[in-house]
Amino acid sequence: MLEIKNLHARVADEGTEILRGVDLTVNDGEIAAIMGPNGSGKSTLSYILAGREDYEVTEGDILYNGESILEMEPDERAASGLFLAFQYPLEIPGVATMTFLKTALNAQRKARDEDELTTPEFMRRVKAAAGDLKINPEMLKRPLNVGFSGGEKKRAEILQMALLEPKLCVMDETDSGLDIDALKIVADGVNALRSPERSFLVITHYQRLLDYIVPDTVHVLSNGRIVKTGDKDLALQLEREGYSQIIEEAA
Amino acid sequence: MSVTELRPRTPAETRLIQLAEAQGENENARRPAIEALRREGLPTRKVEAWHYTDLRQLMGKRLGSDDAVEALRESGETLLEPLLQGSAVVDLDAPEAAHLPNGVTGSASAGEADWKTTPNRLDRSIDTVRAMNAAFGAASATIDVAAGTHLDHALELRPATGLKSHAFTTVTIGEKAEATIVERLDGGTTGAPSTGVNMLHVGAGANVLWIVDQEKGLDSSHLGQLSVRLEADSVFRLFVLNAGGGFVRYEVHTDVVGEGADVQIRGVNLLHAGQHVDVTTTLNHTVAHTTATETFRNVVTGGHGVFQGIIKVARGAQKTDAKMACNSLLLSDEGDFSAKPELEIFADDVQCGHGATAGEIDADHLFYLMSRGIPGDQARALLIKAFVAEVVEELEVEAIEDALETRIEAWLEANIR
Question: By three-state DSSP, how is residue B266 classified?
Answer without folding.
Answer: strand
